[in-house]
Amino acid sequence: MASAPVIFFEPPALADEQDKLRDMLSVIPAKNPEDLKMVAAALKTAGIRHEELYLDWAKPYGRFKAKGLWAKARPDPDAMTEVLERHIFAASRKARFKPQTAAELDPTPMQYRIKGVAPSEGMVVVYGASRDGKSFWCIAAAAAIGEGAQFFGYPTTPAPVLYVGLEGEAGVRGRVLAWERHHGRAMPDAVRFSLQPFRLTDQQDVSDLADICPPGCVVIIDTLNRAAPGLDENSSKDMGGVIEGAKTLQRKIAGLVILVAHSGKDSTKGLRGHSSLFAALDAAILVSRDGDARRWKLDKAKDGKDGEEHGFRLKVVDLGTDADGDPVTSCVIEPDSGATQQFTRPLRGNRQLAFTALENAARSHGILNEHGEFIGVTFADWYAEFLRISTADNKEAKRKAFARAREDLAADGHIAVDNDIYRFAGLNASATHAVIAAILTGQRTGGGQ
What we know:
Blueprint: H1 14-25, H2 33-43, H3 51-57, H4 63-72, H5 79-92, E1 112-114, E2 118-119, E3 122-128, H6 134-147, E4 161-165, H7 169-183, E5 191-194, H8 203-211, E6 218-222, H9 224-227, H10 236-253, E7 256-262, H11 275-280, E8 283-290, E9 293-301, E10 309-321, E11 327-335, H12 337-343, H13 349-365, E12 367-368, E13 374-378, H14 379-389, H15 395-411, E14 415-418, E15 421-424, H16 429-444
Parallel strand pairs: 3-7, 3-8, 4-5, 4-6, 6-7
Antiparallel strand pairs: 1-2, 8-9, 9-10, 10-11, 12-13, 13-15, 14-15
Helix pairs in contact: 2-4, 3-4, 8-10, 13-14, 13-15, 13-16
C-alpha cells in the first residue's frame, strides 16, 4: 500500500501568496508609469512585505525609479483591478488558437485518482436516493485515496483529500469513527474535514476553500443541495452557477471535485435537476439499493468504460453509548458480490417485453454519433415499439406496464439513460451496441441488414 505524504491544509504562506501575485503581474508590462503607480498602491496595502516583489517586477522600468513610485504610493486595495482588467482584455484580443499536427498532440493518457472510475482532475458526481449509502461510499473512497489503497479492486493514486461535510457534524464524526474502528487504524492523515458552512455559488467561499487545498487535492462536497441553498435545480441559469462554481474550484486546486447529489423521484431518469450538470461531468456514480442489497455503478465515464457495477453492504459498527446509555452506531461499507446478483432478476413478462421493444427500436430507430457508434434510442421510439408488440387489454394498461418495466430494467442495471436517450447496460452492452451500430450503418448506407 502506497502512503500519501502528510500534507496539511493551511492558509497560504507568504511564498504561496507571492507566487499568485507574480502570476497576476505577469500580464502587466512594467513600462507605463501610471500602471506602476497603481500596482504599487495595491501591493502597499499589505505594508512592506511585497516591496521586493514589486521592485523585481519593475526592473524593465528601472529599479531606482520604481522605488520612488513605491515611496509615494498610497495604499489602495482596488488600485490594480482596472490595470489587470485592461491588460487581460488586451491579451484576449490576440490570437488564441494554435492548430497542432497529430504529432504535436499530447499522447499522455488520462491520469486517474481511482483508476477507471475517477480522474485526477475533473468533476464527478456520486448520486442516489436518500439513505442508499452515498456518504459511506465517499468516506471509504476518501480513505482509499488518502493512503493509496485499492478501492473495490481499483488502484488509486494517493492524494490529499478534503471532505466538506455539510449535513451534520455528528454524522460525519460517526462515519469516520466507524471506519477507524472497523479497520483498526486511524483515518489517513492526508484526509481532512471541513464542517463549516460553504456555498459553491459564492466566489469568496470557493476562493477561500481553494486557498487551503494543496495542488492536486480531492475535494468531496456532501451534499450539493446544502452547498447551494435556494437552488432551483431545474433552472439552467441556477445550475449553470453551480457548475461554474465547481469548475472554478476544480481549476484553482488543479484536482478533483466530487459532488454528492440526489437522484430524482423516478430513479430511471438519473441525476436530479437540469441536464446540464450531467453533461458537464467527467464521471457519474449511481449508488442504489434493493432492500439490504446495495451497489454502485459507473453511470458515466467520459474517457472510460461505463456500466460497471459493484455490490456492497453496510456493516453496523458499535460506537458505544450516549449520555442516556443508549447505543450509538454508524456503518462502513464492505464489498458484497452477492448484492449485484440479488439486483439482477431474470427477464420475464413485461420486463422481457420492454427489453425486446428496446432491441427492436434500436435496430430501426437507433441514434449513431459522429463516429458511427450507437448511443441509444429516444423514449418516444422505445415506447411506440412497446405499444406495438404489447398484448395488454388497453392503452392505459400498456402505459402502466411499460412504466414499471422501464423502472425495473434501469434499477437492475439492464439499461442506462442520459437525457431521455436509453441504451443497454451491463456486461454485454458493448457487444450489443457494436452489433446495432453495424446494422444501422448498413441500413443507412444501402448495405441492407
